[in-house]
Every structure is written in C-alpha cells, then in structure tokens.
Amino acid sequence: MTTPAPAPLTHRLATAEDLPALAALMDVAIGELQKGFLSPEQIAASRAIMGLDRQLIADGAYLVVEQDGVIAGCGGWSRRNTLYGGDHTPGRDAALLDPATEAARVRAMYTNPAFARRGVGRLILSLCEAAAGAEGFTRLQLAATLSGQPLYEAYGFEAIEAFEDDRGGVPVPLVRMGKAVAAPQSPLHHASHGPPPPMGEE
Ligand SMILES: CC(C)(COP(=O)(O)OP(=O)(O)OC[C@H]1O[C@@H](n2cnc3c(N)ncnc32)[C@H](O)[C@@H]1OP(=O)(O)O)[C@@H](O)C(=O)NCCC(=O)NCCS
Which domains does the chain have, with CATH numbers? Predict the structure, then answer.
C-alpha cells in the first residue's frame, strides 16, 4: 500500500479574525523553535522584541500558510521602516520606505513547530520577495533571530551586522541581513518553473 501524498500547503492573507490563532502559534514557535539557539533566559527576553504586529495585517502584507485548514506558519513583509518587533515593542516607526532607495522589510516569520523544516518559511519568503518586487523594491532587509538565520542564509540573505537587543532584560543576539530582490520571471518561465502565485492567492 502506498502512503497518500500530504495535502499541499496553501496560503492566504491574514485577517483580524486570525489574531488569536496567530498569537498562540507565535508563542509556541518562540518557545520551542529557539531551543538550541538561545538559553531559556534569552528565549524569555526575546518575547519583548518578537510577536504579533497588527500593522502588517492592516497593510495586507501578512500571510498565513495552511495545510488541510491547520495553520502551518505565518510571516510577511512591510513597506514601513520598523525592522522587527511586535505591537508591544518600543521604538516602532511606521514611516513609509522609498522603494528606489530603501529595502523592504521581511517581518514576523513563525512556523508551527509541528510543520518545521517542511518549507513553510521558504514559501513565505518567496511570496514576500515577489510582492515587494512588484511594488518596485530592489532589496530586502530583516533582523534575524539565531533560529531564523539558517533559513535566511539558505534563501540567499547575507549578514550585514550582528547586534544585541537587551530590551527584554537579557541581551538577545540578532543579525541584520539583506538580499537583492530576484528579477521577475518571464511569463514563459513563470508558467513552468516560476514563483508561486501572488500574495493572497493560492
Ligand atoms: C525560522 C523559522 C520560521 C523557519 O521555519 P521553517 O518553516 O522550519 O523553515 P523551512 O522549512 O522553510 O527551511 C528552509 C531551509 O532553511 C534552513 N533551516 C531552517 N530551519 C533550520 C534549522 N533550525 N537549522 C538548520 N537549518 C535550518 C534549511 O536549509 C532548510 O532547508 P531543509 O529543511 O531542506 O534543510 C522557524 O524555525 C521559527 O518559527 N523559529 C522561531 C521563530 C523565529 O525565530 N522566527 C524568525 C524571526 S527573524
């Protein structure tokens, strides 16, 4: 007997109705998937600088990836200046970026631990890159946790500078990373090997 193929990963834009489920997913991802990268004290401190950012959902730039109706992960991008952090993180800056001179942000990437290492993060990055490129951005930038850094390196981001954020009471290491936005695929190429459909569509 053959094992049935797993249901495909689908994606859609997050809405305000997703907020409780997304907050719960982020909570468990922060607690579970940073083990091995951070000490328990650093994980506790990282909650001050990670988590839900409603601005991303309001901007229509935050994605939910699902399999069979179960949320497998979430993440998004932003045309605003804030580089990282949740609603509760101080020092946010909602100023709009200039696509001609500034890098779009990749923000708030979290995978449900039950779906880790199944390509959810990579799928969200490809959708964010396509959406930012469609708005004229030529570069992406983000602040990586140590848990996120291997994903971003595998996707083609390069480290710009390492720094620490101690606003949670204990210094938490982060890495500012950047990547050029890949040129859009030609229609012919798109039809056979192109990136997934645009944000908000499956
Ligand atoms: C970072 C995170 C979103 C990655 O999500 P993911 O869906 O498991 O990532 P993917 O399955 O798309 O990984 C793609 C590739 O990235 C690399 N990668 C991802 N996680 C990795 C890990 N823990 N260790 C080593 N390489 C890793 C691998 O090359 C992987 O490909 P492979 O599985 O075929 O080897 C997830 O671990 C997470 O939620 N972490 C906690 C929250 C967090 O720190 N988010 C980042 C904020 S900047």
Answer: 10-85+93-183 (3.40.630.30)
